[in-house]
Write a structure and sequence with these properties.
It is built from two helices and no strands. The protein is mostly helical. It is elongated.
Length: about 70
C-alpha cells in the first residue's frame, strides 16, 4: 500500500473516532466531497483486506438542509 493510501486510510479512521467523541458533547458537522469520501472508503477497504478482514463500506449523502 502506498504512503498516500495509508494516509487516507488513517484519516478515515481518525474521522470515525473523532465523530464518536463529538457525539458526547459538542455537535460538529464535517462535509466531504463524494470523491474524497469514495477515496477514504476504498483505502479503508484495501487496508482491511490486506490484513485479512472481510469488510464493507457505504458512502451516504447528507440530507441536511434539503427538502424532500
Amino acid at each position: 500500500m502506498t504512503h498516500a493510501l495509508k494516509a487516507v486510510a488513517t484519516a478515515g479512521t481518525a474521522m470515525l473516532v473523532c465523530g464518536h467523541v463529538a457525539a458526547q458533547g459538542v455537535v460538529m458537522q464535517r462535509n466531504l466531497s463524494l470523491a474524497m469520501a469514495k477515496t477514504i472508503a476504498e483505502a479503508t477497504l484495501a487496508e482491511c483486506k490486506s490484513k485479512g478482514f472481510n469488510t464493507a463500506a457505504a458512502v451516504v449523502p447528507s440530507l441536511r438542509g434539503k427538502r424532500r
